[in-house]
Amino acid sequence: MNGAGSPVARRAVTVMIYLVVLVFVLPFYWMAVLATHDNASIYHFPPPLLPGGNLSANWTRLVEVVPVLRAMGNSILVAVAHTALVLLLASLVGYGFSRFRQAPGARWMWRALLATIFIPGLVGLIPWYVLIARLGWIDTLWPLIIPGAANGFAVFWMRQVITQTVPADLYDAARIDGASDWRTYWTVVLPLIRPGLGALGVWTFMGTWTAFQIPLIVLNSQENFTLPLALANLNTLYGQDTAAVMLGSVISVLPIFVAFLLAAKQFMAGLTAGALKG
Predict the structure, then answer these.
(1) Which of 198, 264, 261, 254 is nearest to 227 (CA)?
(2) Residue 223 DSSP code
(3) Does pLDDT of 230 surpass 90?
(4) Residue 184 buriedness (CB in 10 A; 0-12 / 13-18 / 19+)
(5) Which own/partner pairs from 39-44 qualify as long-range (CB within 8 Å, at least 24 positions apart)?
(6) pLDDT tens, position by position, 136-187
(7) Is residue 83 within 8 Å of residue 201, measured between CB atoms?
(8) Is the dihedral of CA 166, 168, 169, 172 positive or negative?
(9) What global pTM score does this model have?
């Protein structure tokens, strides 16, 4: 019998998988546990490993210093709106680059787009800030939603997904049926590229949700703070209230888990909907 397929080998692989999962999950579990204890218990040795009864008090102190619910609402608005814009623009532009590769100037435009991926964002930070200030967007949520929606990497990703997923025969069939380019994109391309959209959506949502530098630069009023900025402000204003900070961190992580679970279901649905029999 092949050693790789033996029961002992399978058990060993299973144990290793569980250990790896434990390594990744344990910090989040411990963070959630510490969010239910007071500060004295957190710094006690040995540290607590089971939930405590101080969750309500920690929540009260948290909302007294930081408008957590408003900050979470701002973060949800920014992350959802920005992700939706990125997916729309990236899929449209990627569809254009994939389908009309022989159009005049397409090759040069593609090279120019690839060049933007290798330019560090900090290089254009000052001109970007001047533009945002002239638009009157300082201390608003607009700079967090609109400017980054034209994302070179997202376009590159969607162009590769569409090229590898949608065969040219489908374009020909849609043209024979009288479908316009827009209808082909909406009814033929989108159902087939759901897995790629799901992966890009999760990546964009997580990056937008955890963004700290740009909100720190453009947001001045506490009522406009996103959640990461509000939590950083909490640690500054309220000293070392570790329990409250841990509770805020748990709250900030939960939407990421929810987004991942929703995208995972969409990923599987897209695989079955976009399957082609050749």
Answers:
(1) 254
(2) G
(3) no
(4) buried
(5) 39/240, 39/241, 39/242, 39/243, 42/242, 42/243, 42/246, 43/242
(6) 999 999 999 998 888 889 999 999 889 888 888 888 888 888 888 888 888 8
(7) yes
(8) positive
(9) 0.81
Q: How many whole angstroms separate alpha carbon 113 and alpha carbon 117?
A: 7
Domain boundaries, the chain: 3-55, 59-273
Q: What is the torsion angle, in degrees rounded to the nearest 10, for the CA atoms of residue 38, residue 40, residue 42 and residue 48?
A: -90
C-alpha 231: how far from chain center: 19
Structure tokens at 15: 């144990």
Question: Helix H segments across 137-189?
Answer: 142-145, 152-165, 168-176, 181-184
Q: What are phi and psi of 26, to 5 degrees?
A: -55, -45
Give dist(CA 179, CA 118) in Å, integer.
37
pLDDT tens digits, 5-44: 577 888 888 889 888 888 888 888 888 888 888 888 877 7
Residue 55 identity: L
**Whether 231 contacts 193, CB under 8 Å:** no
Separation of alpha carbons 170 and 178, rounded Å: 12
| Superfamily grouping for domain 59-273 | MetI-like (1.10.3720.10)
CA 127 – CA 267 distance, rounded (Å):
38
Distance CA 81, CA 9 (A): 47
